[in-house]
Amino acid sequence: MKTTKLFLALSFIAILFTSCYTETVIVEESNITPPAITLNQVLNTYDLWYVDINRSQGSGYIPFMQIAFTVSFNNGTFHANNNLVGIGDQGYGYGIDVGVYNTGNFVLDVTHDIDGFSRFEVTQRSANEIELYNYANDVSYILVGYQRNTFDYNALFYDNIHYFLQEYTTWEKVFTSQEGAINEFDNENFVAFLPGGGDGNFRSSQDQNGSNINNIYWDYTGIYNVDDVPGTQYLKYLTLDYDFLGNEYFELSVIDDNTISFYHPSSGTTYEFLGRGYIQYKKPGEGKLRKSNKEIAKTMTKISKF
Q1: Of 88, 84, 112, whose CA–CA distance to 100 is shortest?
Q2: Quick one: average pLDDT of 231-257?
Q3: Cα–Cα distances in Å, from 151 out to 46, 49, 93, 120, 293?
Q4: Which is it for the CA torsion 180, 183, 189, 193, positive or negative?
């Protein structure tokens, strides 16, 4: 009997303590921070990075950045499109292999085949814009990211029309429309556009079609101007100054990377020219360093009425 009572008493105490016990679970907040995007991931977000030369700033320059229209970063290989001719096709759209690169934190090291080593501090300005700053030369470049299949190549040609015109030794006339009045320009078969904004940056020849471009006799030299057409980015005004013979005015269109069109409003005639003597640029010594539109305007002798 005593044994039974003792057992019941112990059971009651056990039940009492069990019913009063509450398990407390403390959940600690995780201090794990999601991994931040790396510079290499940022660089590989887009196929092409357009070098917006109009927004570059600084007292110096980096030669390989100053000549490039686009740059690309592909598994350690640094590519550049230094020419407008062939852009979109050359190197599957990435351009030519011009060096190698490495990233660490947000520092970009580029070793260029010609110009050697350059280090950049990289700042992400927006989802598709980065800024590259080089301390040694005190210069920054704004790069705008694009995919190859959505990049507006037409706008690229018109935005950089001076450089496109200079990528061929000369342009040969291959078509004259039946429409239009007879005029002096009907006799011109070759035109050439040279770097520099002063006298003599435009040449014209009446040599026969098919002539050796190395033996062309240039009948006229003068100055050329290219101006924007209000309301469209896919057309330019072209003014050719023929020394003391007066100016000729045209509407300039880019048909493809080998063909341009001149429309002569005063006569109603359309001409087409084919580029001859393609000049491929890999290093700055071979081509003209790109300048902003403001810098180009400062060097040009203004002759146009636009």
Answers
A1: 112
A2: 91
A3: 11, 10, 10, 25, 21
A4: negative
Instruction: Give the residue extent of every domain in the chain.
Output: 39-151, 159-299
β-bridge mates for residue 110, sequence order: 101, 118
Q: Write the single-letter amino acid at 228.
A: D
Q: Which helix (H) or strand (E) holds 80?
A: strand 77-81
Question: What is the spatial distance between Cα 175 and Cα 171, in angstroms, rounded to a whole number?
Answer: 12
* pTM over 0.90, yes/no: no
User: Which single residue is written with the structure tokens 């403001």?
Assistant: 294
Task: For residue 206, give the nearest of 253, 245, 254, 166 by alpha carbon.
Answer: 245
Topology annotation, domain 39-151: Lipocalin (2.40.128)
Taking a C-beta distance cutoff of 8 angstroms, is the pair 274, 266 a contact? Answer: no
Q: Is 118 helix (H, G, I), strand (E, B) or coil?
A: strand
Q: What is the DSSP letter of 288?
A: P
- Greater model confidence, 77 or 89: 77
Bridge partner list, 259: 256, 274
CA atoms of 157 and 259, how far apart (whole Å):
12
Helices (H) and strands (E) in the chain, counts: 6, 17
What lies within 8 Å, CB to CB, of 144 at 6+ separation is 49, 50, 52, 128, 129
pLDDT at 1: 46
Nearest-angstrom CA–CA distance, 112 and 291: 21
Closest CA to 132 of 197, 47, 51: 51
Question: pLDDT at residue 91 above 60?
Answer: yes
